[in-house]
Write the structure tokens for this entry.
Amino acid sequence: MQLDKNFVDCWSGRYIGEELGDSGLEHELLGPVHQAITDRGHVTSGELAKIVTWKSRRTTGILEADPDTIRDVTRVAFDEATPDWMRHHILCILKGVQHPVASAILTIRYPGTHTVVDDRAIGAVRKLWQLGLLSTEPPLDASHYWSYLDGVFRPLAASLRVQHRDLDRALWKWHKEGMPET
């Protein structure tokens, strides 16, 4: 097995073909919603509900934040003065937003520099590390977003010369399919 651009293209393509379906939600989030959030500087409650639905439908029922709190917290998280490593922690202030959803919010706002973290992504990079295809040991779970993002994911995406979203899709789909070594 080789961890290269072909691996990413193959598994990301399978994700797009088999997982995205006709929903269009990811396209909407990474297109018009991303642009609106970027222009405005914060997330609305409607946009947050869409991001939560995209990341984890299970979380939708426990998300409890009023529109003003969502606006204020996301505005601080997206402020240029906020250190990159701190953005994720700030988003977790929102009731019902834990590490995976916070990473999804950051992915929509900063698709070129952030990615979604979840058990599938962590499991996939741990397996790649066990196979000797990664030199840095990944974190054990999604609560270590920054060490995953800055210590494993960004360097891997850069070395493979692939977009963050494509690498994330590939890792997620490869894990879902049982991480075959062929």
User: Anything to note?
Assistant: Residues 153 and 164 are 8 Å apart (CA to CA). The chain has two domains: 5-24+115-176, 39-109.
